[in-house]
Amino acid sequence: MTPEDRIYALGIWQGPIEIEPITGGITNRNYLVRDRAVCRVVRLGEDIPVHHISRQNELAASHAAHAAGLSPAVIHHQPGVLVLDFIEARALTPDDIKNPAMLKRVVPLVHACHREIARHFRGPAAIFWVFHVIRDYAAHLAATGSTYVARLPAVLEKAERLEKAAGPFDIAFGHNDLLAANFLDDGKRLWLIDWDYAGFNTPLFDLGGLASNNQLGEEDEHQMLEIYFGQAVTSDLWYRYSAMKCASLLRETLWSMVSEIHSTIDFDYAGYTAENLARFERAYDLFEQDR
Predict the structure, then answer these.
(1) Which of 13, 55, 146, 241 could connect to 35 by a Cys-Cys bridge, CB 3.0–4.6 Å?
(2) Cα 151-157-160 angle, rounded to 5 deg
(3) Closest residue by Cα to residue 148 from 259, 8, 268, 30
(4) Who's near 155: CB < 8 A, 6+ residues apart?
(5) Domain covering 90-289: architecture
(6) Beta-carbon contacts of residue 52 (< 8 Å; ≥ 6 apart)
(7) Crossing angle of the two packed helices 100-120 and 218-229, in degrees rounded to 10
(8) Structural fold of domain 3-85
(9) Which residues contact 248 (CB under 8 A, 6 or more apart)?
(10) What terms describe the molecular function in GO for this protein (predicted)?
């Protein structure tokens, strides 16, 4: 059955529908669907155990994020399908995130995610511990004979150093995939979407991911941390944050290495691996200089 056939067969539409693919997704296939009454977003995607993605967890997080006022409502769901209310808005870009005025809007939304969603989450909740994910990815790459196997011992050694450096850890409910495109601006407020990787984590992982995914400069990073914590950035906080930013880049690198093997989505994963590996190595060198 084609994606279009699956969407037609949902049985929730009023009259004929128009289906428009939404470009840019590298984990799911997303579509904008209009019937004669409303417009919805349809996300098609099964569980992806190798990436620690459970659609039941994504559904629960989506419900909780909506209840917290951060994300669109869930309209319908069934195995492999999530239908969401459509928000007339534009997705942010990395350049948007770098704008100091936008960063002042984005960071409180991330803070609200960390503090509010857990109050509304129901059922078993995931833990997204980046260092476990890194070790699991490395084991999978080794077991499947990846072309990156020779790099894995050094990767795991660096990950161990980062895990020791990043503590002690606070725990909050994290989004864990803060790409610019997961923030929507409707002209009045921001929304946070796409809860594939949601789960309890340290807030510093989301902050490190926000910075690394959008290539914030050091001045921007200090502003981000000061907004989030409401105080000047200490050397200890900067050191722990830098370790988690490196971990975020390393996880993204290994995610792409694994996706090179498994993904059926048309995307240049090899190029994405090379880009993130180079960025991780630069960030790790800077982290080592601060030790």
Answers:
(1) 13
(2) 135
(3) 259
(4) 134, 138, 250, 254
(5) Alpha-Beta Complex (3.90)
(6) 126, 128, 133, 136, 197
(7) 40
(8) Phosphorylase Kinase; domain 1 (3.30.200)
(9) 130, 205, 208, 209, 212, 213
(10) ethanolamine kinase activity
3-state SS, residue 201: strand
Tokens at 186, concatenated:
């409707």
Residue 242 neighbours by CB under 8 Å, 6+ apart: 208, 283, 286, 287, 290
Q: If you average pLDDT over every residue of the chain, what do you get? A: 95
Residue of 207, 44, 61 lying closest to 127 (CA atoms): 61
The answer to whether the beta carbons of residues 250 and 281 sit under 8 Å apart is no
**Left, alpha or beta for 145 (phi > 0: left; psi -120 to 50: alpha)?**
left
For the chain, the C-alpha Rg in angstroms (whole number) is: 19
pLDDT in tens, 99-127: 999 999 999 999 999 999 999 999 999 99
Q: Please, where in the chain does CATH 3.90.1200.10 lie?
A: 90-289
List every span in the chain annotated with CATH 3.30.200.20.
3-85
Angle at which helices 235-262 and 152-166 cross, to 10° = 150
Q: What's the CA gap between 78 and 55, in Å, rounded?
A: 10
Give the burial string for 113-136 (b: 16+ CB within 10 Å, else e): bbebbbebbeeebbebbbbebbbb
The alpha carbon of residue 244 and the mean position of all alpha carbons in its chain are separated, in whole angstroms, by 14
Q: Are 31 and 41 in contact (CB under 8 A)?
A: yes
Give the amino acid at 38.
Answer: V
Q: Which of 132, 146, 151, 134 is nearest to 257 (CA)?
A: 146
Q: How far apart are CA 71 and CA 74, in angstroms?
A: 9
CA distance 131 to 208: 14
Quick: pLDDT tens for 48-82. 999 999 999 999 999 999 999 999 999 999 999 99
